[in-house]
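Bug report (template v2)

What were you trying to do?
Predict the complex of my protein with zinc ion.

What happened?
Run completed; filing so the output is reviewed.

Input:
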Amino acid sequence: MIKRLLKIFLIILIIVILIALALGAAYYFTEPEITLNGEESMEVTMAEGYQEPGYEAKYWFIDITDRVEVDSDVNDKKVGEYSVNYSVSFLEKTASTARTVSVVDREPPVLTLNEGETINVLTNSKFEDPGYSAEDDSDGDVTETVITKGIVDTYNPGTYTISYSVSDSYGNEAQKTRTVIVDGEPEVKPDKVIYLTFDDGPSDNVTPEVLETLKKYKVPATFFIIGYSQSEEHIALLRSAIAQGHTIGIHGYSHDYEEIYQSVPDFMENIKTLDEMIRTDLNYEPFVIRFPGGSSNTVSESYCDGIMTDLVQKVQEEGYYYTDWNVDSTDASGNGISTDRIISSIENGCKEDQYNIVLMHDSDAKQTTAEALSEVIEWAQEEGYTFKAMEKGGPTVHHRVNN
Ligand code: ZN
């Protein structure tokens, strides 16, 4: 009987020892474990913010989640790399893990146009942009960095588009456009004014003579130049024109119709090439274009159907005014046109109630234009006309587009 009890006791003892050993081994080999919900490496935007996706902690089969301590430096109002550290201890054993959080900015600035996206202005008035503001969640006030593009030519009724764009430091861009409708009765009436314009220069012979005459009569004018040779003489000639108060317009680097009216990009490249030369050589910012052949030309149709319709829009969207003419000196109808014909064409063409934009040429072949100039100026001054150089936002004339 005793022997049997002893046997049972031994078996129980062995079982207890085995259990104790098992528990001891379990304790020895078991570590607390933290499991993160969601990604270990997270990307969140400033707009959505950071929300802890949660975690679980276990020691063997025991839930110790509520013992986890979380230490986070995440600032979801500021772009950066942050970390969230998780640690837990249980029965003097500890475990830790971490999550990395990248806070990124995907939000463009908020661009606001004062007075709305469509505005009306009166014909011949001076256009001033009503302004705008831009506020960014990362960069704050970025109004200063807004880029505007496009012009409003109030001297030619129609619909114009100004585009505005702004980016934050993380490349998020906001864009808006404003439609400006020019119509209504002219706010300002012309007052006996003549704008003399000279195309196709500079030339070695005619341009210096023209400049001399203009200087003598203290008359300002505008030169629509072509791609001059970047010789010191040409640069000096153009610089002295600017110094005399004349303005410089773009006619085009090349004047070759076939080349420039091939496509819109070809035309724009021709303009930009000369624009950059003018800025570099003359430290001057050109603002006005005259299309070779005028905006009404039909010669362009042989190279590209409809190109003038596209170009008049395109150049204005790119920030250039363009002008044709309403008084033709006829000096382009041949070489050596008589001074009498040039003078009478201008006298007959100028009218009190329009902004007279006179087409003339100062290429080498136009010697008679230079010769006629004094008499034209004297006639106009006797008639009470004043002369002006074309200016940014000032009068222009547009022909009807025929292609
Ligand atoms: Zn020309």
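What did the reviewer find?
Residues 193-387 form a domain with the TIM Barrel fold (CATH 3.20.20.370). The chain has a mean pLDDT of 95.
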